[in-house]
């Protein structure tokens, strides 16, 4: 998986991880992937729902100790 952009949203509370992800996605071409690092537990549901509603694909997510990592492919 080729990552185009990495977004550090650690320490940010809702809705900032979504706001920053939206800005990052807007800078990508269709098919490119942004990797997001967040610490807000709500980001798991928020980013999943946001990606689906925006026509993007949540490729995968994982938890690495306190950091949630997401990979979203621009639709």
From TrEMBL:
PANTHER family linked: SULFUR CARRIER PROTEIN YEDF-RELATED (PTHR33279:SF6)
CDD domains on file: SirA_YedF_YeeD
Transmembrane segments: none
Protein name: Sulfurtransferase TusA family protein
Domain UPF0033: 7-31
Biological source species: Bacillus seohaeanensis
Family listed: Belongs to the sulfur carrier protein TusA family.
